[in-house]
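User: Quick sanity check before I run a bigger batch. Here is a single chain. Can you write out its predicted 3D structure?
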Amino acid sequence: MTKPLRLALLISGGGTTASAIIQACRNGVLLIEPVVVIASSGSISGISRVQEAGYPRESIEIIDPTG
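Assistant: Done. Predicted structure follows.
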């Protein structure tokens, strides 16, 4: 069996693409394993969206590009 490709998902807004990727992985459509979600701000709606898709909060990192 082929191992899934491990990758990071980057979000800066609504997180709709990241959420769709997470769902596709869980449904077996994509053979990847998101190991971390990196958000550009702690206040973006994408954080709650990826959590609703089943991604654990402890694997979401917030890196503010403005310092």
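Residues 24 and 46 are 17 Å apart (CA to CA).

User: Great, the batch can go ahead then.
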